Amino acid sequence: MATTAVAAPKVKVKEKQSKRFKLWIGFLLLLFFAGGYFIVERLVQGLPVTNLSSITPWGAWIAFYIFFVGLSAGSFLLSTLIYVFGMMEYERIGRMALFTAIVCMIVALTFVLMDLGRPERMLNAIIYWNVTSPLAWEVHFYLVYIALLTTELYIAMREDLVRLAGTPSLKGKIAKWLTFKNSPINESTKKRDHKWMKILGTIGIPLAILGVHGGTGTIFAVVQARPSWNTGLFPVIFVVSAMVSGTALLLAMYIIKKKATRQKIDHGMVVSLAKMMVAFLFIDLGLQFYEYLVGVYGLEHHHLEGLGTMMGSAYSWSFWGVQMFLGAAIPTFLVFYKKTSKNVNALLTAAILIVIGIIGVSFNIVVPAQIVPLFEGFPAGDYFPTFNEWMVSIGIAAMGLLIYTFGEQLLPIEEIQSPEKSEG
Fold it and tell me: I need a surface site. Which of 140, 181, 351, 380 has the fewest CB within 10 A?
């Protein structure tokens, strides 16, 4: 009787979780198919359904592209703290960080695909490699980076995949398909896996910093016609912003997942990650301050106009409201104010606001610089995303969330407690 009484609440919890999962999937599918209609419209009718033009050729989709590349690079670099530098207090989010990095890169490249005037020519950058083009180098860096992430995630999951391969569930069948027939688990294989994780992570650090997100910043920095972009500090700001957004995203995802599944939250890790997140934010704000300061003291006309457009025009709400207030001031207060500094809900709010703030940063990088006329007498830019652009963006984001959600269901993204660890 006692066993039945204990089992009953567990069954109810599982039923509630199953219902929530179905509602979540239904909601994401609705967004994905709604966005899918506008994606088809964009592919059929071309760029006229957007507000993009020869004056402002880059808009919301490029802003989201650099945002998601940043999330990917930041998530990966956070994983290296665990697998390369041995900071095992963050081990709970190690695989989540790697999988998030892969999904974010898929989403980022989908945004680029939407922005291309001729999407069917996307492979030309690979086939016809112009070695003097930073953009061509970026395409190849992305391919190597995704391959490295996939390999590292597989090695991180290998032990649990072997364990699952013997189970009759769908997860077990996928694990069996992903593992070799004679994949042993012993101290030797564990050491080998750890060694390869460290090697791949070490290779990935310069790849993520110099090639992936630093390289994305370089695409902007080499555009001499836009003084707001044309600075050597730009790639560095991109990398630091990636660390801010990646840490914030993983912190938010960890807390939301644990709350949704009613699992215990590692309070110490959450507080530590929140402090790390704000530390990266301070570095990012410092770099941006010096970027603006040099621009002001340089007295270069176009650079001053770019700063004026970002901070004192119709577009300034994105800088002051989203980037500085929502994305910096409130999170800093929540993390350092005594009454909220250890409150999980407050830290979750801070993490979500920082992610929103970095979206603002992406828009402030892309749009205001293009509003300033290239030459005296040229028309000024005028850009705000159309309904089609917003719906396409929602559909692509929903696609990414669907990939992540199903990936978590079908792969051991969260470490399975081994018998040895349980006994210990």
Answer: 181
Give the span between the Cα atoms of 139 and 145, in whole angstroms. 10
The residue ranges of DSSP E strands in 204-331, in sequence order, are none
In angstroms, rounded to a whole number, what is the distance separating the alpha carbons of residues 26 and 189?
Answer: 41
Least Cα distance to 159 among 404, 406, 408, 416 occurs for 416
Other CB atoms within 10 Å distance of the CB of residue 185: 15
pLDDT in tens, 68-106: 999 999 999 999 999 998 888 888 899 999 999 999 999
Distance CA 174, CA 154 (A): 13
Identity at 318, one-letter amino acid code: S
Q: How many CB atoms lie within 10 A of CB 148?
A: 19
Nearest to 83 by CA among 134, 132, 153: 153
Collapsed DSSP state (helix, strand, coil) of residue 267: helix
**Which pTM does this prediction carry?**
0.91
Q: Indicate the burial class of 69 (C-beta count within 10 angstroms; 0-12, 13-18, 19 or more).
A: buried
Q: What is the pLDDT of residue 423?
A: 43
The H or E element that residue 45 is part of is: helix 2-45
What is the C-alpha to C-alpha distance for residues 2 and 16, in angstroms, rounded to an integer?
22
CB 213 within 8 A of CB 73: yes
* Predicted local distance difference test score (pLDDT) of residue 15: 63
Alpha-carbon distance of 202 to 162, in angstroms, equals 26
List CB contacts of 95: < 8 A, sequence separation 6 or more. 153, 156, 157, 412, 413, 414, 415
Contacts (Cβ under 8 Å, ≥6 apart) of 33: 395
Lowest mean per-residue pLDDT among 235-239, 400-404, 417-421: 417-421
CA distances from 253 to 142, 154, 169, 348 (A): 24, 21, 26, 9
